[in-house]
Amino acid sequence: MAKFVYRLQNILNLKQMLENQQKAEFALAQARENEEREKLTQLLVRAANYQNRLAEVVDSDSLDRKEIIFLRNANTTMKSLIRDQMFAVQKAQNALEIERRRLDEARKERKTHERLREKAFEEFKLELNAEDNKANDELTSYTYGSAKNKD
Description:
By secondary structure, this protein is mostly helical. The chain has one domain: Helix Hairpins (Orthogonal Bundle). 91% of the residues lie in helices and 0% in strands. Helix 1 packs antiparallel against helix 2. The longest helix has 86 residues, at 65-150. It starts with 8 loop residues before the first helix and ends with a helix. It is found in: Cell membrane.
């Protein structure tokens, strides 16, 4: 019995390897984006804490000028850090989207080659079936012809 050999198997293997690499790169980009989001969340919490402390100090009976100045400066600094971190999150999201597109493209290429392989395998099975039918027909013709010649 004949063995199926897909002549583009090396290319299919390469496409599978490229897709796996792209999956890893996508996972890294996703981890970076999550990390940037976590940093932003931490900055927002810190800014809220500074804002709450400033409100408490201003509402308290004893006004500490140094602490008020420190907290206002801290709030200003936190706003700047938050804005910068929002840009970092946006940059990470853009990088993630680029990696997602690359992964989708790698998947499409792999699936295309898998479909080609499946089509080649179906053709192989049809050829093999046709050869079997031909062999059966020849055997039947020979057997029928031999039996008729004996009569």
